[in-house]
């Protein structure tokens, strides 16, 4: 074994698909790129999301307590990276990056049709926001873009490095304890 920089360990414990987070504040929508999130539980579906005061979307999330998490595919990876490299305080990112939006069914933030999935969320816990910038979100509605079934999501490994989901290994027959969660 050799030492490894602790501040780079997040690149090994990769949190999941890169997400786009849509918010709306005073009727003005914004979108940001997020690489740090996690599933917390299945029922109700809770998601932990790191959004800090350095993010323009932070104020809207604190104020309105809702957002849309969109899972982009590899087909728009360059847009997703570019969205993360500018701020909503000076750019209308939906226009700048030619994103196709549609109204959500429950929350005010828009969904992004260019993405594989859209998950409407409500903030249900903010106890860890001040200390860790961690919002607990409950998924209240979800949408799949059937036109993008063959497009893969991608994962962030830090410093501009991404991986694309690839080969799937199905071991459902071994999941005897968790059969209730299988599709």
From TrEMBL:
<comment type="similarity">
    <text>Belongs to the flavoredoxin family.</text>
</comment>
<dbReference type="Pfam" id="PF01613">
    <property type="entry name" value="Flavin_Reduct"/>
</dbReference>
<keyword id="KW-0285">Flavoprotein</keyword>
<dbReference type="GO" id="GO:0010181">
    <property type="term" value="F:FMN binding"/>
</dbReference>
<dbReference type="InterPro" id="IPR052174">
    <property type="entry name" value="Flavoredoxin"/>
</dbReference>
<feature type="domain" description="Flavin reductase like">
    <location>
        <begin position="11"/>
        <end position="163"/>
    </location>
</feature>
<dbReference type="GO" id="GO:0016646">
    <property type="term" value="F:oxidoreductase activity, acting on the CH-NH group of donors, NAD or NADP as acceptor"/>
</dbReference>
<dbReference type="InterPro" id="IPR002563">
    <property type="entry name" value="Flavin_Rdtase-like_dom"/>
</dbReference>
<dbReference type="InterPro" id="IPR012349">
    <property type="entry name" value="Split_barrel_FMN-bd"/>
</dbReference>
<protein>
    <submittedName>
        <fullName>Flavin reductase domain protein FMN-binding protein</fullName>
    </submittedName>
</protein>
């Amino acid at each position: 074994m050799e030492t490894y920089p602790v501040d780079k360990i997040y690149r090994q414990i990769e949190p999941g698909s890169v997400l786009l987070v849509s918010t709306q504040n005073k009727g003005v929508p914004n979108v940001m790129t997020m690489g740090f999130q996690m599933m917390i539980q299945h029922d109700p579906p809770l998601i932990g999301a790191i959004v800090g005061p350095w993010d323009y979307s932070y104020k809207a999330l604190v104020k309105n307590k809702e957002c849309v998490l969109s899972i982009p595919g590899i087909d728009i990876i360059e847009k997703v990276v570019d969205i993360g490299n500018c701020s909503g305080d000076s750019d209308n990112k939906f226009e700048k990056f030619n994103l196709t939006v549609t109204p959500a069914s429950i929350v005010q933030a828009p969904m992004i049709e260019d993405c594989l999935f859209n998950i409407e969320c409500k903030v249900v816990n903010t106890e860890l926001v001040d200390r860790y910038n961690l919002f607990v979100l409950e998924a209240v509605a979800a949408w799949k873009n059937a036109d993008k079934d063959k497009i893969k999501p991608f994962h962030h490994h830090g410093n501009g490095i991404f991986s694309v989901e690839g080969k799937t290994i199905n071991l459902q027959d071994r999941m005897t304890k968790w059969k209730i969660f299988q599709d």
